């Protein structure tokens, strides 16, 4: 069974940091581009960051540039999202996405809450 499972979310104060991970099973991520998305209550899911299968290309939403870093450990085949200087506006469920058209897989998400 092909699965993605996010972890690393939680409650953090403004200015704090979290690192999200995206574990996978049933397939290898070697050839997949990876994306991190988030969805806040009452809002549409939005793209946060993405990284190419080689790790050579990354992109970030303007709202997270300079604060978030996407990476992938190809030895362990695990994608990460390092989130620093977190703001209350970053509160959302964060999802990992693996894409190799026409195949696209989603995790179930991990909650990130930024609050005092």
Strand content: over 45%
Radius of gyration over all CA atoms, rounded: 13 Å
The succession of helices and strands, N to C, reads EEEEEEEEEEE
Number of DSSP-assigned strands: 11
Fraction in helix: under 10%
How would a textbook summarize the main sheet? 7 strands, mixed
Instruction: Give the helix tally.
Output: 0
Name the poorly predicted regions.
Answer: none
CA(first)-CA(last) distance: 39 Å
Provide a brief overview of the structure:
The protein is an all-beta fold. It has strands spanning 3-7, 10-12, 18-25, 33-39, 46-51, 58-60, 68-73, 78-83, 92-100, 103-106, 110-114. It has no helices and eleven strands.
What does this 3D model show about the protein?
With 116 residues, the chain is mainly beta. Helices cover 0% and strands 53% of the residues. Strands 2, 4, 5, 6, 9, 10 and 11 form a seven-stranded mixed sheet that branches. It is globular.
Please give the structural blueprint.
Elements: E1 3-7, E2 10-12, E3 18-25, E4 33-39, E5 46-51, E6 58-60, E7 68-73, E8 78-83, E9 92-100, E10 103-106, E11 110-114
Parallel strand pairs: 2-11
Antiparallel strand pairs: 1-3, 3-8, 4-5, 4-9, 5-6, 7-8, 9-10, 9-11
């Amino acid at each position: 069974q092909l699965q993605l499972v996010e972890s690393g979310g939680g409650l953090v104060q403004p200015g704090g940091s979290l690192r999200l991970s995206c574990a996978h099973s049933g397939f290898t991520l070697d050839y997949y581009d990876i994306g991190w998305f988030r969805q806040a209550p009452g809002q549409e899911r939005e793209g946060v960051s993405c990284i190419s299968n080689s790790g050579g290309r990354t992109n970030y939403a303007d709202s997270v540039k300079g604060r978030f870093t996407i990476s992938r450990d190809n030895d362990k085949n695990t994608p990460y999202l390092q989130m620093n200087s977190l703001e209350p506006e970053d509160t959302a469920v964060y999802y990992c996405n693996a894409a190799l058209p026409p195949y696209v897989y989603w995790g179930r998400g991990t909650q990130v809450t930024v609050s005092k």
